[in-house]
Amino acid sequence: MKLETTTIRRLRDALLQSGRRPSLVLSPAYETLTRAGMLTAEETAALTRVDPLGETMFLMMSADGRIEETERDAVRGAIRGLSDGILRSGTINVMLENYAKRLAESSRDQRLHEIADEIADEPSEAEGAFALAAAIALADDEITEEENAFINQLADWFGIAEERANQILDQLDEDGEGAEEE
Predict the structure, then answer these.
(1) Residues ≥6 apart with Cβ < 8 Å to 68
(2) Is residue 82 within 8 Å of residue 19, measured between CB atoms?
């Protein structure tokens, strides 16, 4: 599959810009509150809603065995956007820590299977996670063999046929080319 499309690059750039932007209030309190499970109802709902997408992006960024700061920035930007800014950097940092713990405690395939069980019945969620993972793969300006293999595995586990996965990436590329012409 062709991951390096114009739109995926533009999505990556937007995620990086948002992820590099610090939260409005820099405080370790968000990390402490998140670890203690003391989020507001609104924050808890946002975290629950974006958690499978966030973990999918984490699995992508760790697929090559390295986690670059640019990949972290892109994931932070995506989670901020998906949560309409409700989740702050401290909360997102704890989410990333939790994803790393889950991965250390079980295999990538097991984590992917659990996420797939959660979102595969919602084609739009599965396809959104797929597109976001593609943007994360490009966050460090390099798509490794492991990341390419992972995006193919992701499509399979999420029930996205190869033809449909290619259509998603092609459509993203066409959308990007149309936006550049405007």
Answers:
(1) 61, 139, 140
(2) no
Q: Which residues contact 130 (CB under 8 A, 6 or more apart)?
A: 151, 154, 155, 158, 160, 165, 168
Structural domain contains residue 67: yes
Q: The tokens 């991951």 sit on which residue?
A: 3
Pair 129, 53: CB distance under 8 Å = yes
1 located within any domain: no
Question: Is 50 contained in some domain?
Answer: yes
**Which range of residues forms the domain containing residue 67?**
6-181
CA atoms within 13 A on the CB side of 1: 31
Percent of the chain with pLDDT over 70: 77
User: Comparing 180 with 134, which gets the higher pLDDT?
Assistant: 134
- Asked whether residue 9 carries a pLDDT value surpassing 80, the answer given is no
Which CATH number covers residue 82?
Answer: 1.10.3680
